[in-house]
Design goal:
Blueprint lengths: L1 H4 L8 H18 L4 E2 H8 L3 H13 L3 E6 L9 E5 L5 E7 L4 E7 L4 E7 L8 H18 L6 E8 L3 E2 L4 E2 L10 H9 L3 E5 H12 L8 E6 L3 E7 L2 E2 L36 H13 L17 H9 L3 H25 L3 E5 L6 H15 L2 H5 L2 E4 L6 H13 L6
Length: 406
């Protein structure tokens, strides 16, 4: 299986022409619920019945397809119906964040079959960190028990700036002299596809999440930072250089702290887990109380603990999350004015505080958004959880081969 999917379909020769035809048949069968017959293959590929029958027989011998019955006809011989064999094709899915790396083996239904996460990870732009990523992927693959021959590609979602079309990570692992996509493809001998982590999450929402029926949606990835995925005309927007969705660097912020981009006023300094940690520390230093027990000798906690405390009823944590919700809503009102989406999805770790976040978020949207586009825009919270980004990264592989339905 793997050898077929790693073929260079772009080369023009007799063998590759045949592989391209076989791939079209596989795609058609993957999209079909009841299988297809030889006359349909002839029409689709514009080939003669003998050529189609020869392709079908080869694909049966190779283990790709099988006859599943005969089609009922009014007259004449009943043609055989062919469908994909019940073979499992998988993608390696990788999510690389600032303080976490996750790897999964995902099937064509975007179900996760094997999952590993390392939270004791720090993303750095050097070869040592890249080596750790490679080793972690290999360990997950070896422990999965899944045959490498059934793995047809790798999808990578990574934080920072990413050029999907060029296969380049522009912020991290940009020192090899070749795009990160090409580097990993050479290391693992499979096709590799890469995108920004939030756009991968939006991809998953579009295929198996809340945006399945939406043509225009904004996906907010609210965790340590603030990421944004845009779905316009049912497509993920990447932008000309891979920078689409940089809402965290829009000048809606009020804090004077310099952003990592070197500018002041970025919304990402006011909204997200990093901002929540800083706001919490400032309030504690000012004498406000909390039910959170600080680690011994420390006066700072991770934002995950603040989110958990809010769910347990801690007043300070609740107030801070509400402040963040209102600020985010104010920015979203402007985005709704600009793009007129039918749906906004809040994803990331903050999504579990939806009962706290929703009211101030809507109030913030109402404070800046025009009445009519706000009225027709639904606010939803993601249900994909921590696997959303991995599912979206895997979808990069299956979409390339057109093996999943949109």
């Amino acid at each position: 299986m793997k050898a077929f999917f790693t073929s260079d379909f772009t080369k023009v020769n007799k063998e590759n022409r045949k592989n391209q035809q076989k791939l079209q048949i596989i795609r058609a069968m993957a999209q079909s619920t009841g299988g297809i017959i030889v006359p349909e293959i002839c029409k689709m590929l514009q080939i003669s019945p003998p050529t189609a029958l020869k392709l079908v027989r080869e694909m049966q011998e190779e283990g790709f397809i099988m006859a599943v019955g005969k089609k009922e006809t009014v007259n004449g011989r009943k043609p055989l119906i062919y469908s994909l064999r019940h073979i499992n094709l998988y993608a390696i899915s990788v999510e690389i964040l600032l303080k976490r790396i996750s790897v999964a083996i995902v099937d064509m239904q975007l179900d996760v079959k094997c999952y590993r996460q390392n939270s004791d990870f720090l993303l750095e732009n050097n070869q040592e960190c890249l080596n750790k990523v490679e080793e972690f992927i290999l360990n997950c693959l070896n422990e999965s028990g899944i045959r490498e021959d059934n793995i047809i590609g790798m999808g990578i979602g990574i934080t920072g700036r990413v050029s999907k079309d060029m296969g380049e990570s522009l912020t991290y692992f940009n020192f090899m002299g070749v795009p990160l996509q090409e580097y990993f493809s050479g290391k693992f001998d499979i096709p590799v596809f890469i995108n920004n982590d939030t756009r991968c999450f939006a991809q998953a929402e579009k295929i198996v999440g809340k945006a399945r029926d939406a043509n225009h949606a904004v996906v907010i990835n609210l965790s340590r930072g603030l990421g944004t995925g845009l779905i316009i005309d049912n497509k993920i927007m990447n932008g000309s250089n891979g920078f689409a969705g940089e809402m965290g660097h829009m000048k809606f912020g009020e804090r004077e702290k310099l952003c990592i981009c070197g500018e002041k006023g970025c919304l990402g300094n006011d909204v997200g887990g990093f901002a929540l940690e800083e706001m919490f520390s400032e309030r504690i230093a000012a004498g406000e109380r909390t039910t959170i027990n600080f680690p011994e000798g420390k006066m700072k906690v991770r934002y995950d603990a603040v989110l958990a405390a809010a769910l347990e009823g801690d007043d300070l944590s609740i107030r801070l999350i509400r402040e963040i919700g209102f600020k985010l809503g104010g920015a979203l009102g402007n985005i709704i004015n600009l793009l007129n989406p039918e749906l906004v999805i809040i994803a990331g770790k903050f999504s579990r505080t939806k009962d706290i976040l929703l009211k101030p978020l809507k109030e913030g949207i109402a404070s800046t958004g025009l009445k009519n586009p706000v009225k027709t825009c639904q606010i939803e919270f993601s249900e994909l959880g921590y696997l959303g980004g991995l599912k979206g990264a895997a979808a990069l592989v299956f979409e390339y081969f057109e093996l999943i339905k949109q």
